[in-house]
């Protein structure tokens, strides 16, 4: 799971987010109702519009729940107790994964 955030784009629809995470929009809506760190705006039609900060928080939730196997309650506790520390580690992991992909691409070109 990796979503590229556009510097020009301020909001992402729930459909775009669900597609990027390869999950149903209903899961994104559920996580929105469960996790206080998600604060999507709603447009005039009531559709959720996620900010880049929301996307980063969704990546963190996805990482904890889907990749590390946390329960929702466990993820909530983990986020409340060490959100900054967890986010820093998460960002380091993501950057390292990007570097690994780039190095693999270079290796394959040789």
Automatic annotation (TrEMBL):
InterPro entries: DNA-bd_dom_put_sf (IPR009061), MerR-type_HTH_dom (IPR000551), MerR_fam (IPR047057). The keyword DNA-binding applies. Transmembrane segments: none annotated. Residues 11-81 form the HTH merR-type domain. The keyword DNA-binding applies. Keywords: DNA-binding. PANTHER family: BLL5018 PROTEIN (PTHR30204:SF15), REDOX-CYCLING DRUG-SENSING TRANSCRIPTIONAL ACTIVATOR SOXR (PTHR30204). This is MerR family transcriptional regulator.
């Amino acid at each position: 799971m990796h979503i590229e955030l556009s510097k020009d784009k301020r909001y992402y629809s729930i459909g775009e987010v669900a597609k990027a995470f390869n999950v149903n929009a209903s899961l994104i809506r559920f996580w929105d109702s469960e996790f206080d760190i998600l604060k999507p705006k709603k447009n005039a039609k009531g559709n959720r519009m996620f900010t880049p900060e929301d996307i980063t928080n969704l990546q963190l939730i996805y990482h904890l729940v889907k990749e590390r196997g946390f329960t929702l309650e466990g993820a909530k506790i983990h986020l409340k107790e060490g959100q900054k520390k967890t986010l820093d580690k998460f960002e380091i992991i993501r950057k390292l994964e990007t570097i690994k992909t780039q190095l693999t691409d270079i290796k394959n070109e040789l």
